[in-house]
Amino acid sequence: MLDAAGVANLGGSEASECAADVVVIGGGPAGATVATLLAQQGRTVQLFEREKFPRFHVGESLIPETYWTLKRLNMLEKMKRSSFVKKRSVQFVSANGKASAPFYFEDNNPHECSQTWQVVRSEFDLLMLNNAREHGVEAHEGARVLDVLFEGDRATGVRVRLEGGETRTVRATVVVDASGQSGMLMNRLKLRTWDPVLNKGAIWTYWEGAHQDTGRDEGATVILQTADRQGWFWYIPLHDNRVSVGIVAPFEYLFKGRGTHEQVYQEEVQKCLGAAERLKGANRVSGYFATRDFSYRCTKVSGPGWVLVGDAFGFLDPLYSSGLLLALKSGEMAADSINEAFQSQDFSEERLGSWGPGLNRGIDRIRRLVCEFYDGFNFGNFVRNYPQLKGRITDLLIGDLFEDKVDEVWAPMESLYEAGKTAPVAWNSGTPEEVAANKLNELYIPAGAMP
Ligand SMILES: Cc1cc2nc3c(=O)[nH]c(=O)nc-3n(C[C@H](O)[C@H](O)[C@H](O)COP(=O)(O)OP(=O)(O)OC[C@H]3O[C@@H](n4cnc5c(N)ncnc54)[C@H](O)[C@@H]3O)c2cc1C
């Protein structure tokens, strides 16, 4: 029996009725994307989000290739009408304070897609979730999915505790896990592979009245390396005169034996002249947030009747702000595959996950650029040596990760290696079990004001 919200109230174990074509766990950007695109195709979609929106989330900088998914979602007009700061470039400042020329996205591709946005996530995620509702998704907030139901190895639905405390069973033909770093299925099915080299942490806060670039650079993300090259700062201008500024560095270096988050953050600011200058005279408007940021990926994107998208599939170090792109892109790829699965009535792992190898190739490319940066790659130096490849590097920075053309950059990059240096190891080349056992991604949210 279906109630007014279309949720099966099946009572006990008599669960037999299909309440929705698709159930989505989590209402972040990945969940909202997959849900909206499926509803556009006439599928009935139930989405369950454990929080009440708007809620805080880290990850504020979009990159241009999100444009195409936002377009399919009918989000572009909403983005254009929003207060979000327009982002047109990214710039790198090296450890000795030398700034690369900005990578202007429009110089690479003179199309409106080259302008993207710096978003306050509580606002952006709410916009995306409400957009899903407008397309017919039944999105429930304050509704925590407790478990994914299986018959044999086939996912058949979820058990969810609704806002009022009532527990229900919801049957579905396909279950999409978009639960972010909580990774419901990843944990249950032990699918996570920790990256062997990307073991970072982050501490960040929000400022008012900090330095603001002007004109074309007004919304630029600036990446500033610290003097001892141990870490880097992100500098992301947001609307209402706010800036998000965070330090990313090896986890052990950042958190072991160094005092409070505030002490560590301030010490790192002092090691980064560019960051210190930009923050001179600014007021801090929140406490200090912190995360352990170990990168990981799952060994597969799908199984019989289930699919993983966004951070529930994988998380990559935030250096190039690729998280939202990968959330939107995986949501889009998954929605197209799920639609095809309904057309062919084939809900096998292979049918639902046909997009997995393509997604992994894209993540491999941006991961390689992340690893090269941590291994000493210098954008300014590369462009001076290979000016004809500035466009290809910009392709990577805008998130154009899914075409072979970007692979042109690797051999020239290797030609600049110091003697004895080798290319980065693969994400799945192995993390010792005793190391993996101690890994856990956690978020510390301070009390008080929140963007
Ligand atoms: C320090 C840091 C900086 C970053 N900076 C950037 C950046 O500048 N740009 C960028 O693009 N990305 C950035 N990212 C990455 C970005 O935050 C993520 O990749 C992105 O939020 C992933 O979206 P998602 O929808 O997969 O997951 P989420 O946005 O985490 O959404 C998952 C949702 O699932 C819900 N949920 C979880 N469990 C359950 C459950 N059991 N039942 C119901 N709901 C559930 C959660 O409440 C949440 O709302 C950064 C990440 C970190 C850690």
Gross CATH architecture of the largest domain? 2-Layer Sandwich
Structural class, judged by helices and strands? alpha+beta
Cα-based radius of gyration, to the nearest Å:
22 Å
Portion of residues in beta strands equals 25-35%
The set of bound ligands, ions and cofactors reads:
flavin-adenine dinucleotide
The overall pLDDT average reads 93
Low-confidence residue ranges: 1-17
The CATH class of the largest domain turns out to be Alpha Beta
Q: Could you say which overall geometry the principal axes of the C-alpha atoms support? A: globular
Residue share in helices?
25-40%
First-residue to last-residue Cα separation: 41 Å
Number of helices: 16
**What is the CATH topology descriptor of the largest domain?**
D-Amino Acid Oxidase, Chain A, domain 2
**How is the biggest beta sheet arranged?**
10 strands, mixed
Number of beta-strand segments: 20
Domain module tally: 2
Account of the protein in words:
It contains 16 helices and 20 strands. The protein is α+β, with helices and mostly antiparallel strands. It folds into two domains: 167 residues, 3-Layer(bba) Sandwich (FAD/NAD(P)-binding domain); 213 residues, D-Amino Acid Oxidase, Chain A, domain 2, CATH 3.30.9. Strands 4, 5, 11, 12, 13, 14, 15, 16, 19 and 20 form a ten-stranded mixed beta sheet that branches. Strands 1, 2, 7, 8, 9, 10, 17 and 18 form an eight-stranded mixed beta sheet that branches. Strands 3-6 form a two-stranded antiparallel ribbon. Strand 12 and strand 13 form a beta hairpin. Helix 1 runs parallel beside helix 5 and helix 1 packs parallel to helix 10. The site of flavin-adenine dinucleotide (FAD) has 34 residues, from helix 1, strand 2, strand 8, strand 16 and helix 10.
